[in-house]
Amino acid sequence: MRERRADHERHRARDFESFVAGAAGRLLHTATLLTAEPLRPPGANPRAQRLLTAALARTYARWERLRGEDPYDRARRELVVRFAHEVWRHHRPRGGPLDPLTPQERLVLVLRLYEGVAEEQAAALLGLPVDRLRAVCHRSVATLRGARRPASRWLPRRPRRSHGETRQPRRPMRAAP
């Protein structure tokens, strides 16, 4: 009886490990977008990693009861719920690409545009009417389009000149023939 139970636990652990190997990268990216932490350098997102670890632990605890349910959907749902609970406690800007958005706008935008969740499904998951979800999504996209970021943040910087180095003189433009 113990051997059978041990075999069952090993099989369960193997299934979950293969799921995590395939889905953890995308789920971590989703968590990083939700927490508005910087995407780079690697390891700059400890809050997202904690959020993902808690969501995966909860998913593993319910692994046996997932029969017929997509484990990715369950893990994403746990991620969303944990993010929503955490964000109501603290909200500070983190410097990520979605930082100008409110937590609700980030949540809607990530679910709809990054994860590709249907409007009805996302509305049900968040407990919002579909029209409200659509309005939040449009508002967040408009906010991101209107957000002005300094060019130096997105464009590579020119190398600085060393002390005493002079600028090369410009060549005169040729006259048109």
Number of helices: 7
What percent of residues adopt helix (DSSP H or I)? 55-70%
What number of structural domains do the residues give? 1
Describe the largest sheet: none
Describe this structure in words.
The protein is mostly helical and 177 residues long. The protein has one domain: PhyR, sigma-like (SL) domain (Butyryl-CoA Dehydrogenase, subunit A, domain 3, Up-down Bundle). Helices cover 62% and strands 0% of the residues. The chain contains seven helices and no strands. Helix 1 (2-35) crosses helix 4 (103-114) and helix 5 crosses helix 6. Residues 150-159 have low confidence and may be disordered.
SSE inventory with pairings:
Blueprint: H1 2-35, H2 46-61, H3 71-89, H4 103-114, H5 119-126, H6 130-146, H7 151-154
Short description:
This protein is mainly alpha-helical.
Main features:
177 residues; mainly alpha; Butyryl-CoA Dehydrogenase, subunit A, domain 3; 62% helix; globular
